[in-house]
Design a protein that fits this description.
The longest helix is centred in the middle third of the chain and has 97 residues. This protein has a domain of about 120 residues. Helix 2 packs antiparallel against helix 3. It is rod-shaped and about 160 Å long. The protein contains 4 helices and no strands. By secondary structure, it is mainly alpha-helical.
């Protein structure tokens, strides 16, 4: 059996933090309430122990009241058992509440993760379609550029076929020199 927690251990518990975890303030309040309940039970138990000790001391001094002391001890034992049972029930209730809250948070986180996965898959599919469209557009543009360049080349070839034959540089030099006045 695990060692029971003290009220101080509950108050100073260092709970791990997680994204979308428990509400820290509500959890701290719950732990503080549990610590107060433990303190109250501990005080009541200590008071009962003190009463039992006093009664035991009285029983030692007054052996004629043995029957009364036995009844008191039985009552004290019964009250102690009830307090232990009550504390156990409260701990179980606190634990169940924390587990329910954990389950709700986990369900919300799973739902959000599923939604994000669905959105991501849709985005990927959209990007793939867009990529295909861009590839088709690029292929179309390439074909249009090739056709445009071929048409321009054909026009240039046609224009070149219509131009007179070029004059050789030696003939040009002689013709120009004859026109230059002599000094």
């Amino acid at each position: 059996m695990a060692k029971p927690l003290t009220a101080q251990q509950l108050r100073s518990a260092d709970l791990p933090r997680a994204r979308r975890g428990f509400d820290e303030e509500a959890t701290r309040r719950l732990l503080a309430d549990a610590a107060e309940a433990i303190n109250a039970i501990t005080r009541e138990r200590d008071d009962l122990k003190k009463q039992v000790a006093e009664l035991s001391e009285q029983a030692a001094t007054k052996p004629t009241d043995a029957e009364t002391i036995g009844a008191v001890l039985m009552t004290a034992q019964r009250v102690a058992d009830e307090l232990v049972a009550k504390a156990s029930d409260e701990v179980a209730e606190i634990r169940a509440s924390a587990e329910r809250e954990r389950d709700v948070v986990l369900a919300q986180a799973r739902a959000e993760a599923d939604a994000m996965a669905t959105d991501t898959a849709a985005s990927i599919e959209s990007l793939r379609r867009e990529e295909g469209e861009l590839r088709n557009s690029l292929a179309t543009y390439r074909q249009e550029v090739v056709l445009f360049l071929r048409a321009a080349l054909a026009q240039l070839e046609h224009v070149e076929s219509m131009t007179p034959a070029p004059v050789k540089p030696a003939e040009l030099d002689t013709a120009l020199l004859s026109q230059v006045p002599a000094e």
